[in-house]
Amino acid sequence: MGHQMFDYDAQLTDAVFAYCRERLSMDPVPLDYGSQREIPIDKLAGLIRPEGRNPQEILDFFETTLAPAVVSIDSPAFLAFIPNAPTKNSLLFDMVVACSGLNGTSWLESSGVVVAENQALTYLADTAGLPAGSGGAFVSGGSIGNLSSLTVGRDVGRAKHPELNPHDVRFAISSDAHSSIGTALHVLDVDTLIVETDDHRFTLKALEAALANDPHPENVIGIVATAGTTNAGIVDDLEGLGSYAREHDLWFHIDGAYGGAAIFSATHKHLFKGIRHADSFIVDPHKWLFAPLDCCALIYRNPTVARKVLAQQASYLDVLHDSSDDEYEWNPSDFGIHLSRRARGLPFWFSLVTNGAAAYESGVQVAIDLAQRTQQLIEESDHLEMVRPSSLSIVLFRRRGWKAEKYNEWSQELLRRQIAFITPTKWEGETVGRIAFLHPNTTEEMVVEILNSMRG
Ligand SMILES: Cc1ncc(COP(=O)(O)O)c(C=O)c1O
After folding, report:
1. Which among 284, 296, 348 is the best mutation to test ligand 1's pocket, defined by most ligand atoms within 8 Å of the CB?
2. CA angle 285, 286, 288 (to 5 degrees)
3. Euclidean distance between CA atoms 422 and 89, whole angstroms
4. What pLDDT shows up at residue 326?
5. ∠ CA(332), CA(334), CA(340), 5° rounding?
6. Given this model, what pLDDT does residue 327 score?
7. Are 426 and 44 in contact (CB under 8 A)?
8. Chain centre distance of CA 248
C-alpha cells in the first residue's frame, strides 16, 4: 500500500480522458470569454482544505466555470497578439509527455528524449540555413530564448574585448525589437544602441548611420535583428546586418520567435537567407509551428561556446559533464537559463514527424495567403484602409474615423458575440486594427464577417 495520493483512480482517469477527448474532437473549439466571464470568487474560497474534495465535482467546476473564462488560444478565431495553434498530434503527445513524467534535462537521464528533440532542432537549423553542428535546446519561450542567447553574446563580446570596460559593452537593436529583448538586456545590465529605422525595418544602412553618429561605436559587441516583428511582421535586413556582423566579428542574434516559422514558406523563405550568419537564432514552435505552449527552439551556431557560458556547475552535477565534449552527450540544460526541464520539444517533434514537413510548409503558407487576401478585401472596402502592406501573416488596418475607444468597444463586442478575438494596437502613435493570422483553419468567411462588423 502506497500513499493514497498515488493510487490509480480509474474513474477519474476516464473522466479526464473523456474531457480531453471532447476538446480534441471539437471543430472548432469554442472561442470562450476570458475576463468577460465573471469568476465566482466565493466558489473558489475555501476549496483547499485539509481533506480532499471529490475530483469529479472539481473537474465539473473547472469545465463549467473556470475554463470559459479563458479565450481558447487554439481557436481559429483567436487573431490577437500572437496566437497558438497546436496540431492534434502535438496536443496528444503533450499528454504523453505529461503522463510519462518525461524529464529532458540531461543526456544521462534522458538520452531518448534528447536525440528526438535534437532531431527537430537540427531540422529547423538546416531549414534556416545554419551550418552543420548548430544546436541548442528547447526553452520555455522567446523571452528566455532571447535572454539565454544575449547572455552568451555578452560574455563572448566581453572576452573578445578586454580593452573595454565590461559594463560598457552594448548591443545594437532597433526600436521595433520585441519587449523581451529590452527585458533581457535589462537583466544583463547591458546598454543598447537604439537604431532608428525607415519604415520600422532594421537595415544595414540604418545601422551604419547610427554607428557613424555614435560617440562610442567600439562598445557595440553585437547586433539583434528581428525576423518578423510582432506588431507588423517585418523581417529585418538579415543578410546585410549578418554580413556586417561577420565582417566586424560581432555577435549576431536573430529573434524569429514569431516570424522565423516562415522559413517554411515557399513565397517568403528568401527573406530569411541571412539566418546563415546568425550566432544565435530563436523560433517558437508554440507560435507559428503548431506546437502547444510552452516551446521555443534556441539554436546556436557554436553550441560549445554557449555551453561554456551557461552550463550550471555544482558538485552534484559533475556527473553530467564528465564527458560532455562528446557530441552525443548532449545536456539540454547546458544551453539555456534553466536546469530542470520537461521535454517540451517532443510534442513538436512528434507532430513534425507524423504530419510531415510538407504539411508545415502549407500550414504556414495559408496564414500568409490569408493576410494578403485580407489586404485585398480591405482595399476594396469603403470603410477601411491599410496602414501599411501586410507582412508575413500580420495585417495593420484602419477603420476610417475611429479613435481608440471605438476600436476597444468593437474588440469587446466581437468577443462577446463570439465572432473573434482581436485586440487593437498602436502604429506611430495611432490606435489601429491588427489581425495576426496563424491558424490554418481561419477562413475568408470569418474575415469578411470581422471586416463587416466594423461598418457600424
Ligand atoms: C518577436 C518576438 N520575440 C519574442 C517574443 C516573446 O516570446 P514568449 O512570449 O514566448 O516569451 C515574442 C512574443 O510574441 C515575439 O513576437
Report:
1. 284
2. 65
3. 27
4. 56
5. 60
6. 57
7. no
8. 29
Mean pLDDT of all residues in 124-149: 98
Ligand 1 mean position, distance from CA 84 (Å) = 12
Ligand 1 in reach of 116 Cβ (< 6 A): no
CB 105 within 8 A of CB 332: yes
Q: In what order do the strands lie in the sheet with 220-226?
A: 135-139, 296-300, 280-283, 251-255, 220-226, 170-174, 191-195
* pLDDT tens readout for residues 373-396: 999 999 999 999 999 999 999 999
- How many percent of the chain have pLDDT more than 70? 99
pLDDT tens for each residue of 21-30: 999 999 999 9
Cβ proximity of 290 and 361 under 8 Å: no
Rounded distance between C-alpha atoms, residue 245 and residue 277, angstroms: 8
Domains in the chain and their CATH numbers? 96-355 (3.40.640.10), 358-452 (3.90.1150.170)
Residues 6+ apart with CB under 8 A from 393: 233, 288, 367, 368, 370, 371, 436, 437, 438
What confidence score (pLDDT) does residue 328 get? Answer: 63
Q: Which amino acid is at 377?
A: L
Report whether residue 176 contacts ligand 1, using a CB cutoff of 6 Å: no
Closest C-alpha to ligand 1, atom 7: 142
Locate the ligand 1 atom nearest the alpha carbon of residue 143 and give its number. 11
Give Cα 152 to chain centroid, integer Å.
Answer: 20
C-alpha 393/C-alpha 437 separation (Å) is 5
pLDDT for position 1: 75
Cβ atoms within 10 Å, residue 242: 24
- The whole-model pTM stands at 0.97
Q: Which atom of ligand 1 is nearest to the CA of 286?
A: 10
Distance between CA atoms of 240 and 227, rounded to whole angstroms?
A: 13
List, for residues 78-128, the tens digit of each pLDDT value: 999 999 999 999 999 999 999 998 999 999 999 999 999 999 999 999 999
The DSSP code for 429 is T
| Run of H or E residues at 448 | helix 444-452
Q: Check if 365 has its Cβ closer than 6 Å to any atom of ligand 1.
A: no
Note the pLDDT tens digit of each residue in 389-422. 999 999 999 999 999 999 999 999 999 999 999 9
